């Protein structure tokens, strides 16, 4: 149960997590074999440690899911606001030391290092770059969370689809002011990139900005050579990086424990096969151990 709940909380499947804890709890039966009714406040009286700490574990997961939805929808300012409110160390201006794993706890041998940068400076700059990209759009790119997908596709004559089509071709009310705003954003991004301490990071971001700022050269950037920056994949990449940083800064693994253990076990089996390690007799196996 603990591994499954960890997986559900890690992926912010909060509704499923609540149902899982409720349905997987030990059932108490009366003398006739009928299930006893649950108390009015089960968290305080069931004695189930998972139920007692469930809401505490789900609260940050729900905030993380909301941040992910904002990022995948292109609402960078809203995502930054939630980060500053609930996970301030992710974008901390004080550049506090990285939290990582709790050094006071003994190592489990399963430490996992994020593959993307968790440096607050890099994350803040990445979010500002994506805010610039979103501001440069001339055609909205809607995002529908999995739970919000329509059950049936809209017909071409659907009023909702017609309204969306009208919205998609609506440009800025003042093109000159919009262009000035984009230029100001680009200048600020270049200044921030120039201020990076690391020469390697500075060079990397300046190259990135030289490409991204190409959006300024086109009145229809969605159909330009730099349209790749306007794809949903870019939102997904920054969402993954922010999610990884949140988990890292809150002393959580960037992957669920069951995924980490699976990777670890897969490597062990591959190495055993490669070096032709023989499996010991069953009589020498620890109690409860069996081959996968």
TrEMBL record:
Residues 177-278 form the CRA domain. Pfam families: CTLH (PF10607). This is CTLH/CRA C-terminal to lish motif domain-containing protein.
